[in-house]
Design brief:
Layout: E1 11-16, E2 19-24, H1 29-46, H2 53-72, H3 76-81
Antiparallel strand pairs: 1-2
Helix pairs in contact: 1-2
Length: 95
């Protein structure tokens, strides 16, 4: 991903079936790592013999959503509640 300069908004534009969607990146690096690890643990737990049926499916879906939001750096729930865990991350000095 290209480095962001100064106070530029962190926005991704996507075009899906002719409709332009703009997503603001609102998941920081620490949050991303936690989401991906927790998602992998949940998916592993869903495939274990401890869970079966509907409970396993629910845990699997929650794990998949956690991994997806960590990878794409966008969480719709954060947008609804006005949260942004990546806004206060220190910028790297490029010299």
């Amino acid at each position: 991903m290209p480095a962001l300069a100064g106070n530029q908004p962190r926005i991704i534009s996507l075009e899906i079936r002719g409709a332009l969607m703009k997503m603001s990146l609102n998941v920081g690096n620490g949050d991303r790592a936690i989401r991906v690890v927790a998602g992998c643990v949940l998916i592993g737990f869903a495939f274990s013999p401890l869970l079966t049926g509907s409970a396993a499916m629910v845990v699997y879906i929650i794990g998949a959503v956690a991994i997806l939001t960590g990878v794409v750096r966008f969480c719709p729930a954060y947008t609804l509640f006005g949260l942004d865990t990546g806004a206060k991350e220190p910028r790297r000095k490029t010299t």
